[in-house]
Amino acid sequence: MSEIKNNDRREFILDMARNVGLATLGGLMWSAYVDEVTASTLVLRPPGALKEKDFLRACIKCGLCVEACPYDTLMLAAPGDNKPMGTPYFVPRDMPCYMCTDIPCVPVCPTGALDESSVSKDGVLDINTADMGVAVIDDNSCIAFWGIQCDACYRACPLLGEAIVIEYSKNERTGKHAFLKPVVVNDVCTGCGMCEKACVTEKAAIFVLPRETAEGKAGDYYIKGWDKNDEKRLENATSEITTTEISKESAIDSLNDGLEDLY
Amino acid sequence: MQTVWNNYRYLILRRFSQISILVLYFGANVWGWNILMGNLSSSLLFGIVPLSDPYAALQIFAAGAVLTADLLIGAGIITLFYLTVGGRAFCSWVCPINIITDFSAFVRRTLGFDSIQKRQPATRNIRYWVFVMSLIISFILGITAFEFISPISMVHRGLVFGLGLGWAAMLIIFLFDLFVLKNGWCGHICPLGAFYSILGKFSLIKVQHDADRCTGCMECKVVCPEKQVLFMVDKESLPVLSGECTSCARCIEVCNHEALHFSIRNFKN
What we know:
heterodimer
């Protein structure tokens, strides 16, 4: 009798162990897969999208923004597109964001993954405050940098003369012509991609990247001392002195330390 | 009375319901209809009423996002609706995957797989584990875990917005149900089904069995995708109280002796 009970107990414990094992295995594979497929950093999101990590948290993948878009700009990532599945994105070279003034794609979002307040100024929707990405120029393939006259991107920019400016310089090769080089003003550019669409080269020489990817960061060590706005970054600066093995004595002492044997 | 209508009336109505919902969504995306916009994850009815998948909302909550009013209202409406009509009515009257898995089950029956493989190698409780796990992973990774792998949304979204490789998901589920496990996806794994099973415990509309009329032919158990819920057939006159019943009503229409019918739940007993 007790033999049977013992076996029952053993079987129960083994069954539990098997279930826990299977659940752990499944859970790990599931987590790894989801983590991997959402790690895509080169996707351009609709205007007003939260930061990518928060966006992936909140987006319910309903496609209401896609349906609201009057230009077939937005698409939902289908399996095989190699983008986080079901989330909205756009490819400017195929169809850029045409910057509708009423931004129909944003207010329809049911989960706040597209945030109205981030594309509003004084409580009014303003597409010029959108930040879908930033245009980057490859000056090696941009024909304006070769000296050929082209201002397609400059003309296509909805923030004409603000987000892309033309820089003049002398063409030393011919001695009598000028370079008319397009330069992106990062802080103004909304990443709509109309420049990328307009670019005349075979593969666009100007293209939109997510801001996170396109921009560097100078960090707090470097301040533009001539710029009152930039100096504001120092307002809340605190000083903190770290003492390490080397710095606890003065620099000279520290450098000469351990050289006694030489004399 | 054995007429086609009598034996297939609910099946025809269900397919009609599933396909018209798909067509409405499709029309919204392609022709700009505004009856039902979005998709099964979240939609707008007549351009005003928000509807949201409460399970997706739960994952968004677990992932740590702030739930907006639209999402709460939408998920609330859907929850109340399925609380009333029976949780898994979603599965058999709305979900497009049901068409695929019903077809698998039909092929299995026709080719006689079921009589060869009498015992299935997995428990139907897996889905509850998957459900709990989806919330844990959503919480840990800060991402809606099931929404990124869900073949339901993949297929449904695919049919409305462009399929991509979504046909592969359809094929996998079809083959899985056909060869690996009977009622494999819907009856064993799907966490959305698990979620609606939990909701369905409280529903008002239930299938009622009348043992006095039953001849014990067991036709109902043959067609039932969750046949454990019909344990009382030919034994006792009881309502099908299990939330796992999908309210597909196949049992009602295949019964030639009217021993099963829909009824309102009697809360007194």
